[in-house]
Amino acid sequence: MKIHKKPLVFITVLLIALVSFGQEQKSFEEIKKLMTEQVVSWNEGDIPAYMQHYWQSDSMMFVGKKGVTYGWHETLNHYLKSYPNKATMGKLVFDHFTFQWIDTSNIIVIGSWQLERKKGNIGGYFSLLWKKINGKWKIVIDHTS
Predict the structure, then answer these.
(1) Using CA atoms, how far apart are residues 69 and 59, in angstroms rounded to an integer?
(2) Selection from 112, 101, 125 nearest residue 27 by Cα
(3) CA-to-CA distance for 21 and 30, rounded, in angstroms?
(4) pLDDT value of residue 72
(5) DSSP string over 76-113
(6) Each residue of 5-58: pLDDT tens digit?
(7) CA nearest 145: which of 110, 120, 105?
(8) In what order do the strands lie in the sheet with 91-103?
(9) What is the pLDDT of residues 64-103, one digit of tens each?
(10) What residues are paired with 139 via a beta bridge?
């Protein structure tokens, strides 16, 4: 009996693609859930809880209009200074998500953000690099404008 290699190669590639697609979808859903948790924390006025999905490292980067802030603690302090109370924080809304799978442990999420506040709404766009570290998705780079 002669075995044809081309169909086996095709089936193998197809199975790998299907498994990879399933992993991508699962990861996207996990990150959406984490970002929903962030919105809830923000809207409750709890910035430290909001920051729990960021990588707690001095290598974490936040890029904003004033430049780059390095480190989890420095980013936390920046948020606490910029949003000293719940009125300043307003109600956070994330929208228009685009997910870009880089590999099994890196995903870029691009979207928009808005703060609905009595003193005036503000908003912009973000790009987040999520990295799977020790089995958990963490934001390692946040570029928000």
Answers:
(1) 10
(2) 101
(3) 14
(4) 98
(5) HHHHHHH--SHHHH-EEEEEEEEEEEEETTEEEEEEEE
(6) 565 555 555 444 445 556 788 999 999 999 999 999 999 999 999 999 999 999
(7) 110
(8) 67-70, 61-64, 136-144, 122-133, 106-116, 91-103
(9) 998 999 999 999 999 999 999 999 999 999 998 899 999 9
(10) 54, 130
- The C-alpha angle 87, 121, 82, rounded to 5 degrees, equals 50
Most distant pair of Cα atoms in the chain: their distance: 78
Look up residue 110 and give its two tokens.
């691009």
Domain spanning 5-144, CATH class: alpha beta
Alpha-carbon distance of 61 to 74, in angstroms, equals 9
**pLDDT in the model for residue 17:** 47
Tell how far CA 109 is from the center of its chain.
6
pTM, two decimals, is 0.84
